Amino acid sequence: MKISNKDIKSRVYGKICASTPTGVWTATDFANFGDYEAIKKALQRLTNEGSLRRIDVGLYDRPQHNKLTGKPSAPDYREVIEAIARRDQARILVDGMTAANDLGLSDAVPGRVVVHSDARLKPIRIDNLIINFRPTSASKLYWAGRPAMRIVQALSWLKSKLSDPEENQRIRRRINSILWDRQAGAILRKDLKKGLTSLPAWMQDFLRDMVSNERMSSEKSSGQKRGSRRRKAHAP
User: Which of 56, 64, 60 is nearest to 28 (CA)?
Assistant: First the structure.
């Protein structure tokens, strides 16, 4: 039974609404709903109605507005990158500064995001942000698209800061909290354990305890150190 264009449009929008509000979509995400041209027309109609926003050629999202200013919010560049990777079946690896910013490890706001990829893709501008796709050999894309990709990339970029004891502890605490997040932590730890030997020796040493030990023992040890410092401070 052939599905009507109206039904295709309804199914496309239903799938979009059922997903994350900041999601970015391409026609290939709805391939099981009908033929490619019908999907493209459905996306165009939804855009003309104002239900969707066209970000770039073949990229769409639901328009969001800033609650304070009432102005349109920029599309989520991370979702844009993921949508392009799905559409072109490309392996992608974000640059270190972007990864550190995404993980809350840096306050630096990138004006340009560099994405290493095994595909040749044209740059995309999102307001004042430019996403550049840099062709990269497969041998350098081991962590591309993997759950722990951003942790590895961020640490590579932050390596020089780890020699500072305060910065080392700040970065360590943040990475530890990410690795023991209730929702995603287990997946990240498993991924890092699997690929640990592919990392440089200094990064293996930095991560080994965090991916191997139970968090309870880590927190207990931290608590004991804080208690020891308090006792010394109050000692006569």
Answer: 60
